[in-house]
Automatic annotation (TrEMBL):
InterPro entries: Spore_YtxC. Pfam families: YtxC (PF08812). This is Sporulation protein YtxC.
Length: 299
């Protein structure tokens, strides 16, 4: 029984991908067969099974794995040509190095090689799954696919999702670039200022709330808040973390000790402090405060 027929031209090398799928099913004790033929430059691969094991469920599973194979081939072909040109045409303000960097990020995402932040990974996975569903739908409708024809006539439809991913990568790249420039300016400002406080303890509770104390054990968080209000930073979006960072930049402590870092709910907050204050930062996870006991300060 023929489950699926795959047609492609000599320029493509899809047979190893199909063999990998057959091996996956073999490991599940499902034996599939492959029948290959060629007419001039056109190749035909038929994926077959014994009539006794045929079922719609098996067809569904084969279509799923073959869709993934075809996705890989299409992405490989598109990555070789279209992504670079898309970035170049739509983001003319980027220089060559930035375009290459963004192109690599997009390719990594499309090829599953990326390490992503959770909030962006969901978006990318949704877009990629949308592409896979389009390919799988074609297989289900026809029980065969001409890969070259599919790329020729359906690539515009697929590019909608690929361009969405590309736009999101560029957006995140620009945000990251602006953030790094902001950090660089803050670090420069900190480096040229004199310290107004010798030591600051940032204490993070088990609930993820913050307190800031000097080396005598006095809370100075309210002082940081007052400084923000005095400078008329009455932006309602300002939170405790913004206030702490503002206070640290204003006072430039010689030493910043962060207690209970494992309780921090916003890792970017810690990352920003580390990047701006670098060698001044010390992470403590072993003192009394970190263990939920009163912190003993010098007198």
């Amino acid at each position: 029984m023929v489950l699926l027929t795959i047609i492609y031209e000599s320029g493509l090398d899809i047979a190893p991908n199909i063999q990998d799928v057959v091996e996956i099913f073999k490991n599940k004790d499902i034996n599939l067969g492959i029948c290959e033929s060629q007419n001039n430059n056109t190749h035909f691969i038929k994926i077959m099974c014994d009539d006794k094991i045929y079922s719609e469920s098996l067809v569904e599973k084969v279509n799923y794995y073959i869709s993934d194979c075809i996705y890989d081939i299409i992405i490989r072909l598109i990555c070789e040509e279209d992504i670079y040109n898309f970035i170049l045409d739509n983001y003319f303000f980027l220089n060559e190095e930035e375009i290459k960097d963004i192109e690599k990020q997009i390719i990594d995402i499309l090829k599953y090689n990326n390490s992503l932040k959770e909030e962006t990974s969901i978006y990318y996975e949704n877009r990629k799954n949308h592409i896979l569903l389009k390919i799988k739908s074609c297989l289900e409708e026809n029980r065969q696919i001409n890969i070259d024809g599919y790329i020729t006539f359906r690539v515009k439809d697929l590019m909608v999702d690929i361009e969405d991913i590309s736009n999101k990568v560029v957006e995140n790249y620009m945000i990251e670039r602006e953030y790094n420039e902001f950090i660089r300016l803050l670090k420069y400002f900190v480096d040229i200022q004199e310290s107004k406080i010798d030591k600051v303890n940032i204490i993070i509770s088990k609930e993820g709330t913050y307190d800031v104390k000097d080396d005598k054990g006095n809370s100075i968080l309210n002082t940081f808040v007052a400084d923000v209000l005095e400078n008329e930073f009455n932006d309602p979006s300002i939170n405790t973390e913004d206030i702490i960072i503002s206070g640290l930049i204003t006072n430039v402590p010689n030493s910043i000790i962060i207690h209970g870092i494992s309780y921090c709910l916003n890792k970017e907050f810690i990352e920003t402090i580390n990047k701006v204050f670098t060698y001044r930062v010390e992470i403590c996870d072993g003192c009394n405060e970190c263990k939920g006991k009163p912190l003993i300060f010098s007198t």
